[in-house]
């Protein structure tokens, strides 16, 4: 018995020692699902992955279920989710309403203090670690250029939202002092421009249009930053309606200096991009036989053209299916498409932007013009047809259940009446037989950026978002020229844009008339591309744009009280359609001048007592 016990003891000790050895080996292993800090900063590929994460957090998800266009006079977000209250200027330091629901708004949700500063911290960590990284100097130089760019881009949007913010260039630890004051607006712009200059110095100009940051992207962003900074919102000679009574106007804009010098800097920065000679308008000179509208469709459903300066790519592999798809923010065809195709009908164009598209001859569209009113969709400019889905326009083939109702696959946003009673609703209305709980309220659907070759119920398109394209650079240059009274030069560049669109040249415009023409051109050319929200603010035109929005009403009259379908068996309509401009239901917006800048959230103010709140909050 004693002998047996001794043997068991020996075996037990051996097993114990073996177990300790195995446990020590286990504890010494690298984590299987993650990488250690040491591993990341010793492997250029992992460092690139780290830098890539700052791209995503800087750029957001512009194709998400909510879009920036919903927060200005471009589109209506049908489900609302408190977007209406945001557009009534009801935001406070306790809540940004629909803007801040990050699980539902992965694009606008990142345009906030906390996530933007979280991205600043990522870039600051990069700069603290890259100093000791060994490797190919060319690779490290390029990584630095990318990080300078994403830090600049992030600070630019912090400044656009809040005015001057604290400039922090170190990765804080728990022992650091977090109480720091806001830097002036001018300090922030100078910092951003300096970061972009560094990015341009480090970056290559030979990247293909694959989503990587290039020298051209850094220079084009610099041109945008300087254009915004020179604009009325930050000009002390023009922004008194915002700054009067505020004790720290230096946080909201310049308080001195030379406005002409600022516009000159913006002009020169845009010209530097033009002079690179790398970019050109896609199909800048359409041939007589070209379909100009189709050229635009190609531009916005392509994976890269001569016009693209900064693209953000998405593929079906980068998103989840079902609910995760819209939470993670990429399926624009599904979100925006007509509900008669089992799409959701969000982000539907407002009549306010649709009515901005000119007639083919360059004249303004007007509801008071009886010819225009009789059929608003005839003889409009090419960009209208490439951007907007409207009553009766052919679209991709309907799904099988809808095709039995509409074998013609034409958009149906109207209603058929008899003796004043509605007897048949179009498939794409909110009363349609396919999806009567989805669908738009404006009478229009978004065409721009939507690939008609795929059915978004089942396939997510692979169209990149164009954060910067050459068309914007030309309009930035023209706007700066106008503010410098260089009208002839401005006209030359505006007309390049109009020529590509198939529109006649502007001739003889000067001064404010030219300024308004340039703003109109920008609104139409860059529609739904995340520019209008910022343009409304920097031009100080919030009061004239946040108001009751408009939509279109389409109606037909049938000869009897019962009809088999929305259209006759041969595809013709029951009568000549009647079109009318109407108020968008439930979308009476309102403007408060405080909304030119966002509030700093109360919890941030409590954490940092040196912060100064923006006026009106």
Give an overview of the whole structure.
This protein has 617 residues and is α+β, with helices and mostly antiparallel strands. 40% of the residues lie in helices and 8% in strands. It has 23 helices and ten strands. The protein has helices at residues 2-28, 37-40, 44-59, 83-86, 113-130, 137-162, 185-202, 215-230, 240-243, 259-274, 292-301, 323-328, 332-336, 351-354, 370-374, 382-387, 400-403, 470-483, 487-500, 511-525, 532-538, 542-545, 602-607, and strands at 75-76, 308-312, 348-349, 388-389, 415-418, 421-425, 445-446, 465-469, 548-557, 578-588. The chain has a four-stranded mixed beta sheet with strand order 6-5-9-10, with no helix packed on it. Strands 1-3 form a two-stranded antiparallel sheet. A hairpin with a 2-residue loop joins strand 5 and strand 6 (421-425). Helix 6 (137-162) packs parallel to helix 8. The protein is globular and about 80 Å long. The termini are far apart. Residues 1-33 and 318-327 have low confidence and may be disordered.
């Amino acid at each position: 018995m004693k002998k047996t016990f001794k043997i068991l003891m020996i075996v037990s000790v051996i097993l114990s020692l073996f177990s300790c050895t195995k446990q020590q080996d286990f504890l010494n292993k690298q984590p299987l699902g993650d990488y250690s800090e040491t591993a990341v900063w010793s492997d250029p590929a992992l460092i690139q992955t780290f830098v890539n994460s700052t791209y995503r957090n800087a750029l957001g998800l512009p194709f998400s279920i909510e879009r920036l266009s919903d927060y200005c006079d471009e589109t209506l977000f049908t489900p609302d989710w408190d977007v209406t209250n945001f557009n009534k200027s009801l935001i406070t330091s306790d809540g940004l309403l629909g803007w801040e629901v990050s699980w539902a708004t992965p694009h606008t949700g990142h345009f906030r203090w906390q996530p933007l500063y979280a991205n600043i911290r990522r870039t600051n960590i990069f700069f603290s670690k890259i100093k000791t990284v060994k490797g190919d100097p060319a690779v490290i130089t390029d990584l630095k250029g990318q990080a300078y760019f994403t830090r600049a881009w992030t600070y630019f949007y912090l400044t656009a939202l809040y005015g001057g913010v604290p400039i922090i260039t170190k990765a804080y630890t728990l022992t650091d002092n977090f109480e720091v004051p806001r830097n002036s607006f001018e300090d922030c712009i100078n910092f951003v421009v300096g970061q972009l200059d560094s990015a341009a110095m480090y970056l290559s100009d030979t990247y293909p249009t694959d989503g990587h940051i290039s020298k051209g992207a850094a220079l084009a962003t610099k041109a945008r930053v300087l254009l915004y900074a020179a604009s009325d919102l930050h000009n002390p000679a023009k922004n008194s309606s915002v700054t009067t009574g505020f004790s720290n106007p230096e946080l909201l804009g310049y308080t001195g200096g030379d406005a002409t010098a600022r516009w000159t800097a913006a002009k020169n920065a845009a010209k530097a991009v033009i002079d690179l000679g790398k970019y050109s308008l896609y199909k800048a000179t359409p041939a007589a036989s070209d379909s100009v509208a189709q050229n635009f469709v190609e531009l916005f459903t392509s994976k890269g053209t001569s016009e693209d300066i900064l693209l953000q790519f998405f593929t079906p592999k980068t998103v989840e299916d079902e609910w995760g798809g819209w939470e993670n923010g990429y399926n624009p065809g599904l979100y925006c498409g007509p509900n008669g195709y089992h799409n959701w009908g969000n982000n539907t164009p407002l009549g306010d932007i649709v009515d901005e598209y000119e007639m083919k001859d360059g004249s303004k569209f007007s509801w008071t013009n009886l010819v225009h009113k009789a059929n608003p969709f005839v003889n409009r400019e090419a960009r209208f047809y490439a951007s907007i889905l409207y009553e009766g326009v052919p679209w991709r083939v309907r799904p099988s259940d809808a095709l039995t109702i509409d074998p013609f696959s034409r958009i149906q946003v109207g209603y058929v009446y008899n003796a004043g009673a509605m007897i048949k609703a179009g498939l794409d209305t909110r009363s349609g037989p396919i999806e009567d709980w989805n669908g738009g309220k404006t009478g229009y659907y978004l065409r721009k950026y939507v690939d008609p070759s795929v059915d978004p119920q089942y396939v997510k398109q692979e169209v990149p978002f164009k954060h910067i394209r050459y068309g914007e650079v030309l309009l930035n240059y023209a706007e700066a020229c106008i503010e410098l009274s260089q009208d002839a030069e401005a006209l030359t560049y505006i007309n390049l844009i109009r020529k590509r669109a198939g529109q006649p040249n502007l001739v003889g415009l000067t001064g404010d008339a030219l300024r308004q023409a340039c703003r109109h051109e920008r609104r139409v050319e860059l529609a739904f591309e995340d520019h209008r929200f910022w343009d409304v603010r920097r031009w100080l035109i919030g009061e004239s744009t946040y108001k009751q929005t408009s939509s279109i009403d389409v109606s037909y009259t049938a000869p009897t009280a019962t009809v088999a379908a929305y259209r006759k068996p041969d595809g013709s309509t029951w009568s000549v359609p009647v079109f009318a401009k109407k108020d968008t239901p439930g979308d009476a917006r309102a403007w408060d001048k405080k909304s030119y800048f966002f509030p700093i959230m109360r919890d941030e103010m409590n954490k940092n007592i040196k912060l100064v709140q923006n006026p009106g909050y």
